[in-house]
Amino acid sequence: MRGPCGASNAKGRSSTPLAITALVIYLLGGLATFGGLALSIRRWFTVGPSGLASGILMVVAGIVLSMLGVLFMRIVRNRGRR
Length: 82
What we know:
This protein is rod-shaped. It contains two helices and no strands. The protein is mainly α.
């Protein structure tokens, strides 16, 4: 049995919500990465070092979120195949 978008797992349930969740995690990771880069670069134009530390933290967290999003996408894609 197919889901509303054509994707389904072995029990006939749609995996579309899981795929949307994976995409959102991936996009949040990308936004955090580039936001952290902007914060790190912006530090050079300000006085305090807090922008650099926060920027590096956001870059690392964004990269981790992006990797988790990709991993989750792969799991959702292979979920119904046996």
